[in-house]
Amino acid sequence: MIIAQKPSATENAKEEITSAWDRTLQLYQNAIDRLPSIILAIVVFIIFFLIARAVKRLIRRFTRHRRNARSLGMVLGRLAQGTIILIGTFIALTIVIPSFKIGDLVQLFGISGVAIGFAFRDILQNFLAGILILLTEPFQINDQIVFKSFEGTVENIETRATTIRTYDGRRIVIPNAELFTNSVTVNTAFENRRIEYDFGIGYGDDIDFAKQLILEAIRETEGVLNDPPPDVLVVELADFTVNIRGRWWINPPRRADALDFRDRVLTAVKNKLTANGVDMPFPTQQILFHDQTEETDGDRNRQREGWPAYGEVPNSRSIGGTLSRLIKNQSRDRDGNVGNASIIDK
Predict the structure, then answer these.
(1) Angle value at C-alpha 85, between 79 and 88, nearest 5 degrees
(2) Which CATH code of 3.30.450.20, 3.40.50.300, 3.30.70.100, 3.40.50.11190 fits the domain covering 193-275?
(3) What CATH number has the domain spanning 139-186?
């Protein structure tokens, strides 16, 4: 009877080491055999990378001097560069790994396309909105826009978001999908911009004379356009003023210029109205003090303040007279009390 001996732990360790060394030598040999393919794949990838950069520069150079296509050229250049690099990567992989087929990768992308679409829905939505914004160009770089509570100058339009610089030195990043589906005010869309302001004059002033003074002050302000011409018109009979609206046009329409012209026009109008004696009243209120000690208190037919009078209207009384009578009544009561007290003491 022959009994087989089990290999010892030392022999097992030697076998594992030998097997690992053989696999390492095999991998090394395969790498040496594929070294020309790897070098060729690297060279091919570098060539495609350089071509991608050249195409990007060419597209941006072609659209650099075209204001309407400048932003679109930037995006198309990036897309062209990414597409060419992706194609170069696929070709390099087929050189290194002959069994790799682009068709298999495309099929894999087709199978997982629905899942990728749901996972990156917001990113794809912003991407498509960015492309549409660049194609339709509702606004461009360096335009000044107002979006909801944000206002500033457009710094960059990317495929995902648009960045604006606010007037107080902050950067706002807005997703393109929101910009494309919501209302945006473009303050610099046209060369000229109209500014308006309401001036209040007193009811006792001559309206035509005040309108003439306001119009002269606007026309005399340097930088205000004569075409379209400025104009003035009465817009409201307010509680304590007659409001006259002055309207004038400026160029360029940027915010800094609008604030500067507004300051100069308002200063000129204020000085001209004041120099010519036109009143610019501030808010006033009339307060009526109701004397509850009158005999007519509570009688709606004879009460003056707050109720219409039907028939005889009582004479008006001044606050000073009412206070004087009140003081006399209090003095009379005090003297009478003092006299009664002296009689009781006696």
Answers:
(1) 140
(2) 3.30.70.100
(3) 2.30.30.60
